[in-house]
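Researcher: We are triaging several targets before committing to wet-lab work. For this one, the compound of interest is zinc ion. I'm pasting the protein sequence and the ligand SMILES. What I need is the predicted three-dimensional arrangement of the protein with the ligand bound, expressed as structure tokens, so it can go straight into our comparison scripts without reformatting.
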Amino acid sequence: MTLTPEHRYTKMWRLIKDATGWDAPDGEIIYDSGVGMENEPEAVWVSGNWSTRPEWSPDFARRIELLGEALEGLGVEVLWYDEYIRCDRCQKLLRKVDDSAFWRPQFHVLDGNTVCRECILSDYAPLEFVRRNSRIPDTAGFLFDDAENWLRRHSWIKFGEDYQTGWHGRGDNPDDIVATIRQKYPDAPVAMVSEDHSTFQTAYNVYYLADRDDEIEVDESEGGVMDETMHDETAESNG
Ligand SMILES: [Zn+2]
């Protein structure tokens, strides 16, 4: 018989209480627990600092070790507290440090709150997110790749082509790009959409929101900035 997440969660806390006497996170070994992680809505997890401390008695150290084994046997995700963070909106647990060169955070920090990808992409939150973040050129948001379709549907205009920054030669500066856009539209929200992100480089597209009848003109001599008459076609073909 398979356990429901709620049942597994209850059993997990029974095991923790048996081993430690605690029925809530103590804040030093066990930090947090819950149901739901990114891409695993039914995952039951407990996070903590599982390092053995010198002040522990051999008996206690052994009990913590056995607890870890029992939790894993129960199918609980036993996690290190400093590798994860909760979404402040939906409370699910999100990985916050890389576990491979291809890892990408599935959240943004918005006004000090951690907000996961699903929460950003639902209920018009992307527009709110982009508007609020893009006022500060330094932190103009790197959104998720599937946000690009969302931006196009909501009349955002693609600016330029295939920007890149990183250790492999190219260093397109987001601040410069935002400054160019704002020469014409001082208040335009600007969104940076990362289409390819690794430890060493980020490739991104840039969108802005402004009146379509009065788009930014191209200066061919500087290159890279797309002709205003071509943006629709180019945006489509890049899809
Ligand atoms: Zn969320």
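Researcher: Any quick observations?
Model: DSSP finds seven helices and eleven strands in the chain.
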